[in-house]
Amino acid sequence: MTTRSPEDLSPDADLDNTELDRPELDSPELDRPEVLTLPVMPLPDGVVLPDMVVTIALQSDEALDAAAATVDERLLLVPRLDAPNGGHRYARIGVLATIEDRGALPNGVPALTIRSHQRVRIGTGIIGTTGGLWVEAETLDDTTTADAEVLTDLVTEYRAAASNLLDRVGGKRMAGALRGITDPGTLADSVGYWPDLALDQRVQLLETVDVAERLRLATSIVKQALAEIEVRNRINNEVSEDLDKAQRDAILRRQLAAIRSELGETDDSSGTDYRAQLEELVANGHVADKVAEAIAFEIAKLERSGGESTEANWIRTWLDTVFDLPWASRSVEHLDLGAARSILDADHTGLDDVKDRLIEYLAVRKLRADRADARAAAAEGAASNDDESAAARPDPRRPGGVILSLVGPPGVGKTSLGSSIARALDREFVRLALGGVHDEAEIRGHRRTYVGARPGRLVRALTEAGTMNPVVLLDEVDKVGSDHRGDPSAALLEVLDPAQNHSFRDHYLEFELDLSDVVFIATANVLDTIPGPLLDRMEIISIEGYTESEKAAIASDHLIPRLVESNGLDAGEVTFTEAAIRQIAGDYTREAGVRQLERLLDKALRKSATTIATRDADEVGHEPADGSGPITVDVDDLHDLLGRPPIQEKAVDRIDRPGIATGLAVTGAGGDVLFVEAALVPGNGEPVLTGQLGDVMKESASLARSLASVRAPAFGAEFPDDRRLHVHFPAGAVPKDGPSAGITMTTALMSLLLDRPVRGDVAMTGEVTLQGRVLPIGGVKQKVLAAHRAGIRTVILPVANGPDLDEVPSEVREALDIHLATTIDDVLEVALTPVAVA
After folding, report:
1. Which pTM does this prediction carry?
2. How far apart are CA 816 and CA 787, in angstroms?
3. N or C: at which end does the chain have fewer Cβ atoms within 10 angstroms?
4. Helix 310-324 to helix 272-283 angle, to the nearest 10 degrees?
5. d(Cα 636, Cα 634) in Å, to the nearest integer?
6. Separation in Å, CA 729 to CA 86, 132, 678, 688, 721
7. 3-state secondary structure 459-491
8. Are 216 and 157 in contact (CB under 8 A)?
């Protein structure tokens, strides 16, 4: 169907359909009755609006029937639409048209030239189907309910929008024809000539009889078309600007390359600099042959690829990463064991056992290095006689050895010990925080196929250190997690295995990297969460915590001097008495380390610094006031500086009735005192356990119930059949697990059955069997120190843990009455109050 534009409506306009070879016809004046009976010609793919001249091909039977049925050359053109059920339906409004010419298209298909005149509303009845479909139709005149002023405004708005649209698309001829249309209804129908108008919009325009509403609809269509053109033009401009910039940059790069070539300078994009760097590394023996081959392969790829291609940028980034590694830099050890011990003593107070083990570690490294030098000299002499056999021998200087793991609660100095070892070895120190790492790529690196790929943390640590043999501290290996991205602890197995880390392969580098000369030191708070295979590759050095006197010494020797400087004070301007330091450590803190102690000292120094700063400001231009000398912090000053000490309930106050016992445990923060409460509640069945207990503790509770049932008759008591055991561990927000609470739960239950309270100054730890034997447990030093901090006077331990008491400081052992128990009877004899007292 061919549609004519508004300028073609004049009698002199060319219909532009020469293939029909028809003459121009003027539209006759028609007598339009109110109700007409007309044959229907369906329009399956278009809409005809009033005052249009169209050419319609008669390709369907319905169209041929309608054309043949015309008597006075009049037809009813009705759009045929798709129905929701899959069939067809007709629009409610059609258009009355007259046939102006008949003919055929060049392909032989019959065609009609039709001029439309007026909207008509189709009736509900079918008059007949002979020779086509006949219906009744009522003519519709253009009407509106809007007043003249509103209609004028709508016409003005539409003209402005349509003219703007035609100017944008270059439709000057169409814009001139639009200015000649004065009828508002015809003006609104002119939007139907827009080629991008959708079928449903054309039908909506046809069915809108009210002229004002039709003008609003036409204006909306035009504004929508304008918006689409704006977006399309903006996108085209942006794309054009990007293309122009890319072409300009490419031309400038080619010109720059030509200028550099004329000047004899190297061009990074050609790989010349990279190749020179590689040749220097190979000539000095800094890289292995396989590594050199991998780098040379990538340089060759870069030279073959386009200078600005994506692959070239990836290769260039990879080469920059590789050459950033400090291949030519290695720290030379001049290990002096005496100087190393002095460094450890200067950096840390106490921890004599730990320092002794670290000195042993350094002594082994010194011997291995010295003996390796001797073997290397012998091998060099042999190589002059047999080069091939010497080349086949392993590297005699590979250190190997163990991986130290410092395990202890927070604040005991694990990280600073690693730094001290680096100072003693005269090596660079790098700390890798592994807490919360879940992605294996953080250790092994990303594959180069990923966007934003980069090497793992170990490779980046070497770059950061600036040497290939630094001391790397793997901090908090017990907090490494695993999820769908992999298991970082599994990747650490290769790193921490001395037999494998000489051939560590990073996924990003894609070649083997020798980490055997790197000194790895791991730290952790607890051992339970470290995977077994990873734990098997480490030698554990436990740092249980400090006594009150050790904390006071650490504060005086290390914490206070550092805090004085960080707070802008001069040495000696603020001092603490020994009694004040001890009271802060004893009354204000209950920790294994010294972090909270450091915070409190810092708080006291800040308040003192405020006093000094205020005093200095007041003395400007005046005589110094009294008390302007150094400040001494004593016991009496602590309440003003730190407030009152936190309330810490003593064990003797908690145990005031039968069924309560004091146990000892090891947590991530060090040793701690916990209370066990037992009660008999109505009912029977398995014991009720509360306080976030793990599976091991649940089993210990069941065992304690059975053991108490067996042992109670010997003391003249019985476990009631109609009662159920309820065991509760206060501080329910803290998860608890482990077998060492076995004797504590049994003692609490026996205390309840015998109606004999447990002594308030007694704490205990140990695993119990069904026969009543007390088995050894771990963490003795941390538990004993926790009991001492809590004011406990008597501690019950398994007899097999007697040798572990050698690790406990002598001042703590002397302050405690320690009993070693073989059976549960030994525990009850010490823990329960005498019968007369009960």
Report:
1. 0.58
2. 9
3. C
4. 30
5. 5
6. 72, 95, 9, 11, 24
7. HHHHHHHCCCCCEEEEECHHHCCCECCECHHHH
8. no
Specify the long-range contacts of residues 637-644, CB closer than 8 Å, at least 24 apart.
Answer: 637/580, 638/580, 638/583, 638/584, 638/588, 638/604, 640/607, 641/603, 641/604, 641/607, 641/608, 642/584, 642/588, 642/600, 642/603, 642/604
Give me the mean pLDDT over the 710-721 stretch: 82
Minimum mean pLDDT among 17-31, 288-302, 681-695: which range? 17-31
Q: How confident is the model at residue 796 (pLDDT cuts 50, 70, 90)?
A: very high
The catalytic residues are: 740, 783
Cα 61–chain centre separation: 67
How many Å apart are CA 507 and CA 319, to the nearest integer?
Answer: 14
- Mean pLDDT over the full length of the chain: 80
Q: How far apart are CA 736 and CA 693, in angstroms?
A: 5
Provide the b/e sequence for 441-478 (b: ≥16 CB within 10 Å): bbbbbbeeeeeebbbbbbbbbbeebebbbbbbbbbbbb
- In which band, very low, low, confident or very high, does the pLDDT at 141 lie, cut at 50, 70 and 90? confident
Is the CB of residue 98 less than 8 Å from the CB of residue 54? no
* Length in residues, the chain: 838
Look at residues 522, 456, 463, 510 and name the one whose alpha carbon lies nearest to residue 488.
456
Q: Which residue has the tokens 């004049």?
A: 10
Q: Is 438 exposed, middle or buried (CB count within 10 Å of its CB: 0-12, 13-18, 19+)? A: middle
Query: What's the chain's Rg over C-alpha atoms?
Result: 47
